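Risk register update: the risk of archive-format incompatibility is retired. Evidence:
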Amino acid sequence: MALKKLKFAPGINKEVTRYASEGGWYECDKVRFRQGFPEKIGGWQRISDNTYQGVCRSLFSWNDLGGVLHRGVGTHLKFYIELGGAYYDVTPIRKTTSSGAATFSSTNGSSTITVTDSAHDALTGDFVTFSSAATLGTSTITATVLNQEYQIDEVIDGNSYTITAKDTNGDEVVSDETVSGGGGGSTSAEYQLNTGYATNQPASGWSAGSWSEGSWSQTTDPSSTAVLRLYSQSNFGEDLLFTSNGGKLCVWDTSQSTSIRATLVEDNVAAEEPPISQNILFVSDTSRFVFALGTNEVFSSTFDPMLIRWSDQESYLKWSPSITNQSGSLRLSRGSQIVSVLQARQEVLVWTDTALYSLQYVGAPIVWGSQLVGTDITIASQNATVTANGTTYWMGKNQFYIYSGQTQVLPCTLQRHVFEDLNPEQLDQIFAGSNEEFYEIWWFYPSRNSSTIDKYVVYNYKDQIWYYGTMARTAWSKYATEVYTAGYNYNLIQQEIGCDDQETTTISPINAQITSSEIALNEGNNFSFMWRILPDISFDNSTSATPSADLTVYGLKKMGSGYLNPVSEGGVSTANVAKVASSTVEAFTDQVNMRVRARLVVYKVSSDETGVQWQLGTPTVDLRTDGRQ
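Archived output:
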């Protein structure tokens, strides 16, 4: 008998065949590498039972002057401040109608209320709050029913829309009287910022969508795609500045109560020519300049997707250039639109759809100068960029890139696996995050057959390796050593905590697995007989009293014939599989008896129980030569 150690190269390589990748790993899910060895990733847990409305596309964490941690949460419907696990709606008011401008009409036996309000500028799905309304006649549509927040069901025209009557518990209320134009003479309506889309809405023809639908400067031509709602946000001291793509510049004062909404900067009487709209907001680390990227020139209403404007130093109110301030602008020349911006070491990086620029503070009169540092590049989305360990990483539309003084393509052993599986209509959803504890850069993306994010890919910059998996997330924020994400259950999630999936009230196992390439058991044409395995699996940090993992070995007859489908999908070429042997490995399992006769084997470790954490070492197999066929 001969003992043979199975030594695997770290990382996943799917750029070649399973046989050509011998000595490595070929498939994985929810597994990372530490010191070159695979282990199950940490668990996650929602931060509270509270939820918010809409799909979160932006998370930002900062402290006020008292050291209290706040988070800005931007969804396609609203904007929230998360504080202590509670979500406070601070969505700004864009319009308040005068007293008596809004009236209501009801129909006996229906819960649908028609609201008439001239030039409301609302979109279907927008939020409006009524006050000082009176009961409609003597019906069940009382003042209490009317005087609350509603989401608009359907916009009829520029002067009217419908809502569904509800009580204060949110239950539907049916009118028992037909009333036209009621509600009292002092009703007022507060309209929140227009809502956006949860995903990109590709057009299906010339008549797709409404011509006037969408925020100012956003693509609204029904022959083109309507872009999902994205936010950018940054703290200005202890206050928060934020905007949506094509939206207004907004500010929330941290010193005020969380019951007070954010406001539009343009509504401040001290504001001097702030942008009418911008696609991206950014605050520089150098002297606190506020940048608007993709915006209008000062004293002009014409939107320019390649224009950058900045406010005066230490002011988000002064945007009109003069000899007494440092506000100004510049226009980039390479590309058709600005896509993203990020603070790097001693420079601000700005991506267009074809180039990368470095902005540096040079002082008056130029103030900010630009230098072209990358050409003939692509970028997948506004949030596909991240900086870690002094290097900037981003995901393009067909490859990955890095910048550390010069722009380079980042070699990827999963390039085809990722880029041939992207949904090209939903690239704007892609976002990146860094997890320095494990030297990782994460990208989340929607796969080809999904309209929402369902997969991720990770680059470990310490070991320069890649791995991947499945996970549904929508945004990422890192604060100190803690990582927070947003999910589709409308709450925030702390990552790398515990062993299990605690995103909901039900604790679920994290199904993790890793599968090797084909491993030749012997040289030449001979079969080998493998009769036992020394698994070398540890279960440190497990919370289960009896943690275990499943060990599966696929014995193959021929070299290089491979599989019809990935092992993780359960589809193997039965014509080439001599034997499939499985066993459960527990904390004190020193050996596993398996009778497998084959030329090659594929080695798989997986787990699907709660409370389990595992790391794989160097397994050893006991073999003997066992003839040819």
